[in-house]
User: Fold these one by one.
Assistant:
Number 1:
Amino acid sequence: MDMEKNVILVTGGSGLVGKGIQMVIKSDMREAEEWIFLTSKDANLLNKKETFAVFDKYKPTHVIHLAAIVGGLYAHIGANCEFFRKNMQMNDNILEACHKTKVKK
């Protein structure tokens, strides 16, 4: 039986939850899965063109979106609207790329 390979793209791969997922995956790797852990060095997900380039490069079947613009408590107090707007823009780029490239989940 020929199984289709699942390509799971994880944004925010260098964050706390992304690293946690990496640890679990290393202990339970499956042949039919390829895991891609993106960091901010791989692409600026605020940029629609870069976001789509990542999707074109890896062709994910599944996406776990963990990336976010974060700062300390005082950064959020001083610019909470800006953090919110940038994170919404990033979410929109990811969702649009998922939709247009027919990501399963």
Note: Strands lie at 6-11, 33-37, 62-65.
Number 2:
Amino acid sequence: MPQRQPVKYRQLANLDKLLQHTGHVVDVLYYEVLDMPLPQLEQLKSLRVHFHSDKTEFVAEHVLRLPRDSSVADVLQDLSGRLGPDYAGRRLRLLEVYHSKIYKVSASTMALWGTA
């Protein structure tokens, strides 16, 4: 059985250690072709955003990759760039929804993931 967790950059020194799992050598290696260097990718966090219109209709889903020290304002700025001219200049809010109810309305100065 292959490793369940992804391998971090410079975590393992050679291929022999990469193919070891719980003391046994495995012969299967799964990999993914990345669109950016791994050290740069490890510095980012992914955030899945479901965008709804002012009539609460689902418009689109976006996956944003942002630095770990990003704020809500950074998310809204990145999202407004992806939405196109239809939503340019409109005020956006980031809401956290749990079981179809608004759980939290995030202030634009709030950090997303802390100082990790």
Note: The CA atoms of residues 45 and 92 lie 21 Å apart.
Number 3:
Amino acid sequence: MKNRLKETKAAKNKLEEHLAKVMEEVSSQEKNIDYLKKAINDKEAPMKVAETRLETRTQRPNVELCRDPAQYRLIREVHEITTNVERLQEMLAKAEAELRGLVRSQLSLEEEIEVKANTVYIDEVLCMQMREAISINNF
């Protein structure tokens, strides 16, 4: 009984250590998600500027539509920014999925730790006191 109790306590301690690591990863992932959201928001202003310049350039009054190096560079700039934003959004989706997995893992670990704590309480407090009260020599 004492060996089983010791094993249960050791398992509970390992679970608590693992939970601490998972919580650190959750915190790190939340910071990463905040960084990605900020990066996406920071790309909005340059995107609007580039799109506005391109639109203004293509809709100039009394001027023929010309395709010069400046026009091509604006088109390329809008495409680059769009590609970067899409890549950041993909990274954000992956990070959020990983965060959900970590939170599920955290909840599972917390539940297992609660079960182990309850087991230790039952074995240590309730059963051990009962076993000590019963004298084997009486039988």
Note: Residues 69-133 form the longest helix (65 residues).
